[in-house]
């Protein structure tokens, strides 16, 4: 039986969790059944994504994004590509009202075939507005929409113009092995943190409104006044990075915080943390929490739609009211004061991710859906 050609498409202008999703699919889809190609935007911010795909042995192609259908040059270039490249499975990533509209319309004109799409944030605030016509046009060939949890599924089904099946496939991650002391020390060394320093609290994400880094600043303020020994590790970049750093300095907590920007292999240093904090207003299924869990690092996260499927409250981590600085500070202080509880939560988190959110399960389920097209 010949392998089926799968084209994974993203026009995202940055490298974030949605783009990580495509790389994990490229990594885990059965190579004896599928020949995979990754198409991503020409924006330089995703150069690392292309390079990582190549390291996985996956073919890549760069095409221009099409912000509006009136941009004829980029549209015709993408149209020509789809007219001459006809994969068996065409999978558009983050195909919500913000992205992929132009490419999906071009593919529809060139191929007249059916698509698979993945929507990561259908419950986000911008989806409360009526869907634009260009999105309704683009999605007419959608045979199947993959979502990450039941909350996402409900949000997609609530739309008036949803096409095709809506299937839940949770994100998954590979198991790098037991979080041994040697791995933790190596990760600390990468961050320039000595063995005796800490404990370490990690915050990982894009410095944008969705991720709400201001709330983490409030948490730092509450914790650092009582526990000056705690180190806060910030990984990521974005428009709010400099304002966040400025506020930390203004509050006098610069010595408690270390900012590393975007680390190409940031996943490898999560194991250095004792606790991971997520402060987002909304999420799909963040890989950072899964990667922390598989490394035995519990998560403290907001109780927002879908998060309870990822973090078992008081079993593998803690859920707190979103946007509540007092609750965040109190929870961090409580957890950091009870090492035994932290370790227990971490063990449960690791077993939970291994059982429910493995990369193998994610890719096998996706492969089965491809076969059903």
Task: Give structural notes.
By secondary structure, this protein is α/β, with parallel strands linked by helices. It has two domains: 4-172 and 358-371, Rossmann fold (3-Layer(aba) Sandwich), CATH 3.40.50; 181-356, Glycogen Phosphorylase B (Rossmann fold, 3-Layer(aba) Sandwich). 40% of the residues lie in helices and 17% in strands. It has 14 helices and 13 strands. It has helices at residues 17-28, 47-55, 72-84, 101-111, 133-138, 150-157, 181-191, 213-224, 241-251, 287-294, 307-310, 325-336, 339-356, 359-371, and strands spanning 4-9, 34-41, 59-63, 89-93, 115-118, 142-147, 165-168, 200-204, 231-235, 257-259, 275-277, 299-302, 317-320. A seven-stranded parallel β-sheet has the order 3-2-1-4-5-6-7. Strands 10-9-8-11-12-13 form a six-stranded parallel β-sheet, with helices on both faces. The relative contact order is 0.12. The mean pLDDT is 93.
In terms of topology, how is this protein built?
Elements: E1 4-9, H1 17-28, E2 34-41, H2 47-55, E3 59-63, H3 72-84, E4 89-93, H4 101-111, E5 115-118, H5 133-138, E6 142-147, H6 150-157, E7 165-168, H7 181-191, E8 200-204, H8 213-224, E9 231-235, H9 241-251, E10 257-259, E11 275-277, H10 287-294, E12 299-302, H11 307-310, E13 317-320, H12 325-336, H13 339-356, H14 359-371
Helix pairs in contact: 3-4, 8-9, 8-12, 10-13
